[in-house]
Amino acid sequence: MKPKSEEVxxxxxxxxxxxxxxxxxxxxxxxxxGSTVAYAAEExxxxxxxxxxxxxxxxxxxxxxxxxxxxxxxxxxxxxxxxPDLTIDGADxxxxxxxxxxxxGGALTREKIVAAASKTLIIIADWRKKAKFxxxxxxxxPIEVLPFAASLVNRKVTMLGxxxxxxxxxxxxxxxxxxxxxxxxxxxxxxIENPAELxxxxxxxxxxxxxxxxxxxxxxxxxxxxxxVEKLExxx
Length: 236
Ligand code: A5P
Fold this sequence. Notes:
Elements: H1 5-20, E1 28-31, H2 35-51, E2 56-59, H3 62-70, E3 86-89, E4 93-94, E5 100-101, H4 108-117, E6 121-126, E7 141-145, H5 150-159, E8 163-166, E9 183-188, H6 195-202, E10 208-211, E11 213-214, E12 220-224, E13 229-233
Parallel strand pairs: 1-2, 1-3, 3-6, 6-12
Antiparallel strand pairs: 4-5, 5-11, 7-9, 7-10, 8-9, 12-13
Helix pairs in contact: 1-2
The structure holds arabinose-5-phosphate.
Arabinose-5-phosphate binds at residues 32-36, 89-92, 102-108, 111.
């Protein structure tokens, strides 16, 4: 049975609230992108007003920047704060080792850069995002590519066994253009038993700017349900 959308929204919010409990006064935060992060931004804004919490965020997308502005959260940059204390971000799929697929909102490259710069990465998601293996339920891997390289990348990922689809816009004809001026190719690789190996191979293809595979990056995942939150930690 399909879950009701209000149950899913409650689950996302519950996960976000748990993550924001980790935010301390003086923190520099990476602010991820997506609908689950929107709840985290609301809670950070609420705490700024209620507790006079002093924090700044490095946004991972224009959406994250706008969420920060809307919620009264001061923004900063990696130039000013190269090592954020904590990044809170969403995910599209999470495997048993806390490897992730991200980028269904098109924001994967800046998300990965900010996550890699941060001391800690906390992922927030609803329960439907958990999988035994990445790639389950036909979840494809978003890949950001230079427009000039799109046909080469299509050919190369097909040789690796993937089925590529150039992401088309909604509210715009033609391909989606990312915050960095690139295209997104969504590639269905089937079940991904070794995400680290796939990531390594993809990174050898000229024109791939970044992939939505986040391997060994998440420290903690809060998996929300309508009535509780499960905490998962990466084995190190
Ligand atoms: C943005 O490109 C993504 O990486 C998001 O973090 C991911 O798609 C999760 O988004 P939702 O929280 O909206 O599901």
